[in-house]
Each structure stands twice: as C-alpha cells, then as structure tokens.
Design goal:
Number of domains: 2
Radius of gyration: 18 Å
Largest sheet: 5 strands, mixed, barrel
Helix content: 25-40%
CATH topology of the largest domain: de novo design (two linked rop proteins)
CATH architecture of the largest domain: Up-down Bundle
CATH class of the largest domain: Mainly Alpha
Number of helices: 7
Strand content: 15-25%
Length: 226
Amino acid sequence: MKETFDSDNRLIVNGMILKHRPVGEYDFAVTILTMERGKISAFARGARKPGGKLSGNVEPFCYGSFVMYEGRSSYNIIEADIINYFEPFRRDLEATCYGTYLLELADYYATENSDESRLLKLLYLSLTAFTKDCFDKRLVRCIFELRALVIDGQYPGFPERRNYSDACRLAMQHISGAELKNLFTFKLSEEALGELVEITKIYRDMFVDRQLKSLDMLATLENGSL
C-alpha cells in the first residue's frame, strides 16, 4: 500500500498493535504490524494516562490507522483511529490465549521496512475466525501457522514420508494455495485435524528457533496437544 501523509507531513499507517510495554510513568512502547512499513516500533506518549487521547487505543489487538511523526531513531504516535478492538480477546481466557499466540508469531515472522501486507491480512482474518463459534480454534491456529510459513517462503509442502490421510493432504493444499479470503471455508474430522496439528508442530519446531512465551499457556489449554 502506498504511504500517505497528512497536511502536517505526519505519516499515516494502517495496522495492528502486536504488543506494548510501559515506558516511564505515562507512556507505552508499542510494536505495530503495518500495511505500509512492515513491523515498526513506536512510542505512545501519555497512553497510560486515564482519559488520554491514546488511552485504550494502543493495546494489543487494536486494528486501525495511526498518525505518527517519524524521528531519527523512532516513531511517535500522535493519533489513532481504531476500526476493530477485537473485544472478545479481552474478555475470554481461551480466546486470549489463542489470539496472543498469533500476535507473538506474527511478531516473530514480520520484519521492518518490508511488505508484510499478506501477513497482516492473514492475522486479521485469523483473529476474526477465532471469534466465530463455527470454527475450531485448533484448525484456525494451524491455518495461520502454515500459511505464515508460505508467506515467509519456508513452507516445505506436504510430508510425503508419513501415511497421513487424503483429507489432511487436501486441507494443506487449500491452506497453502487458496486466496486469503477463502482460507477459512472448510472443516476437518477429529482424526484429520489431529494429523494437521501434528504436522504443524513438526514444522514449528523446524522453523521457529525461539521459545514463544504464549505457547506454554496455549499448550496447557489444549491439554498438551501441541
């Protein structure tokens, strides 16, 4: 997406807050996955002040547009127009565990000053699918992880050396090749889903070279099925 600037020559980016941490007494340092500049870090001055202009608008899962000044070594957020707060991830423990894991994994794969538009769209669609009861959250998680590998250029394809079912093979073909908007259009039997979870774990162990903090809680939630 082409970058835009407002009348004061301030940069406007569209994206999602992946994480934040307190800085000083009133500020947050945030990480945003943006459509225009990939993953960026920025300061949100006064965001921890009750009633502040940015209060509540630089929390994880917030998706919208952010107006910021670009300094020599950092960005400073001035305004935020949030389109979707993804409220279910703030109220429900299970949803929080799954959603936080996706944010952390997106943070792992994303890089600065690169085209991360597909990863951002995948993240948004996956979080949206999590909020719908018709989707098994384990399947949504697998779809995100495998398609993220495709986007990152590391996806190894279907494992030919194991006797997995045709349903699992077809599911992986769909995950790796379908348009993003059509990813979440199928269901799997418990047996085929178990195979997909197993393959996803194998690939995660192969390609993710650090411990993800949110994975431990998610593993407990899924009774060790990770």
